[in-house]
Specification:
By secondary structure, the protein is mainly α. The chain folds into two domains: 17-251, Alpha-lytic protease prodomain-like (Up-down Bundle); 258-326, Alpha-Beta Plaits. It has helices spanning 26-53, 57-85, 99-127, 134-170, 190-219, 224-251, 258-272, 303-313; strands spanning 275-285, 288-297, 317-326.
């Protein structure tokens, strides 16, 4: 919440505040990411071991492929752990909430590279068809889908819990004239979104692969295998682009929600009669935003009054700095 400090100059504690800007469901998300990484790692080991036992290159290849998802989920879990560990570290001026966005950005790049590699291989296979062991490949695709469905089920609760909380914030404010606004953009947990997208991307490609391989096995439609992979690559690329864009905006302290900035400015100017000279709004972490605003007022007005008004309408403003210049002759 915006901190409106009290007025006792002898009580220094009330003039300071913490900078812990973690998501409200941080612990839940961290435990879910760890569990999903563990489940995926166990299946990876099973595939690699059975691949050696049965001399199946397909199983070995899928086990190695699954290692990339273990890495992505491990990266998500590690980001939650680092954010929690450094939550009270004063070296992070505005808290450690962006560890998750950094992990999401990195994970999205890996996801995009994966999609590009699949697209290149798909085009190559369309031009130069290869013999496919449809029976073995179909088995691997089914196993992969099962693993991804389990991981998706594990992550879904944390992902939906975070989304539902963000949605509730979007509609919890005063919607009287001049106050109606929506600021859901960039509000959710990009780190959990990245982990969930990795799982969904693999599940989607597994479904496409199962359909294509079945058609190839039963009807001899071999061209559907690389075609399905190409469609999956386009979907993965689209998801990766969106995630890279959103997480990069957070890392660059960009104003991801101009509508919210405009609503805050309107609240200050209409309710308090001050003029906004400069306003900076950025995201500190899931469900937390920072605000620095400079005002010009014809009448004396305290920063505490400004903060109290903003806190009433915008509860996700967790760190607010207000500068007021009184100018009686200013219009």
């Amino acid at each position: 919440m915006a901190h409106d400090h009290a007025h006792d100059p002898h009580n220094h504690g009330i003039w300071t505040h913490g900078h812990v800007f973690l998501g409200h469901s941080h612990d839940r998300a961290e435990s879910r990411a760890k569990l999903a990484a563990l489940v995926t790692a166990l299946f990876m080991v099973v595939e690699i071991v059975t691949g050696f036992i049965y001399h199946s290159l397909a199983l070995l290849a899928d086990g190695i492929h699954m290692a990339t998802h273990v890495g992505a989920l491990g990266l998500a879990a590690g980001a939650y752990w680092l954010a929690r560990r450094h939550a009270d570290n004063s070296r992070f001026s505005f808290g450690s909430g962006k560890f998750g966005d950094l992990a999401a950005f990195s994970s999205a790049i890996v996801l995009g590279i994966t999609g590009l590699a699949v697209a290149i291989e798909s085009v190559t296979r369309l031009i130069h068809p290869a013999n496919v062991a449809y029976g073995d490949a179909l088995l691997i695709a089914v196993i992969g889908l099962c693993v991804n469905l389990i991981s998706a089920f594990i992550l879904k609760d944390a992902h939906q819990h975070d989304h539902a909380h963000g949605h509730a914030h979007d509609h919890s404010h005063d919607h009287s004239p001049g106050h109606a606004h929506s600021h859901g953009a960039g509000h959710g947990d990009n780190n959990m979104r990245a982990a969930y997208l990795h799982v969904l991307a693999d599940a989607a490609t597994s479904v496409l692969a199962i359909v294509a391989l079945a058609c190839g096995y039963y009807f001899g439609m071999g061209y559907l295998d690389p075609l399905a992979a190409l469609v999956g690559a386009v979907v993965i690329g689209s998801w990766a682009y969106g995630l890279i864009k959103d997480s990069a905006m957070v890392l660059l302290d960009a104003d991801a929600d101009p509508k919210l900035s405009g609503a805050i400015k309107s609240t200050i100017e209409k309710d308090l009669g001050a003029r906004v000279a400069d306003l900076h709004l950025w995201r500190l972490g899931p469900g937390h935003r920072g605000l620095i605003v400079s005002l010009v007022s014809p009448d004396p007005i305290t920063a505490e009054k400004i903060k109290a008004s903003l806190r009433q309408h915008y509860p996700d403003l967790s760190h607010v700095t207000v500068e007021v210049a009184v100018c009686a002759d200013c219009t």
